[in-house]
Amino acid sequence: MTRPDAMERTVKDNPAQHRFEIALDGDDVAAAYYRIDDAGRVVLTHTEVPYEYSGQGIGSRLAQGVFDAIRASGRKAVLKCSFMVRYYALHPEYSDIVDG
């Protein structure tokens, strides 16, 4: 079985689970958890990529998809997740949506 390249994977919002996710093999998912604050901002709280997918670019693809989805929604992001903070530090092109 050939695994799809990280950039081919689709990031989907799963509001029932309060997370953005990428479906992986089987039931595995990479996920970025969030809550919506009183101002309507998307507060990114935690990111998880299963260990066996480490080093494949899944986390970066997830972060890019999350930031793109937040931008498309017209909302702002608040970064409480250290992974998202590091991704943003390398991708300042998202400064228009980061609000804390």
UniProtKB/TrEMBL annotation:
PROSITE patterns: GNAT_YJDJ. Residues 12-99 form the N-acetyltransferase domain. This is Acetyltransferase-like protein. It comes from Rhizorhabdus wittichii (strain DSM 6014 / CCUG 31198 / JCM 15750 / NBRC 105917 / EY 4224 / RW1) (Sphingomonas wittichii). InterPro entries: Acyl_CoA_acyltransferase, Gcn5-rel_NAT, GNAT_YJDJ. It comes from the Bacteria. Pfam families: Acetyltransf_CG.
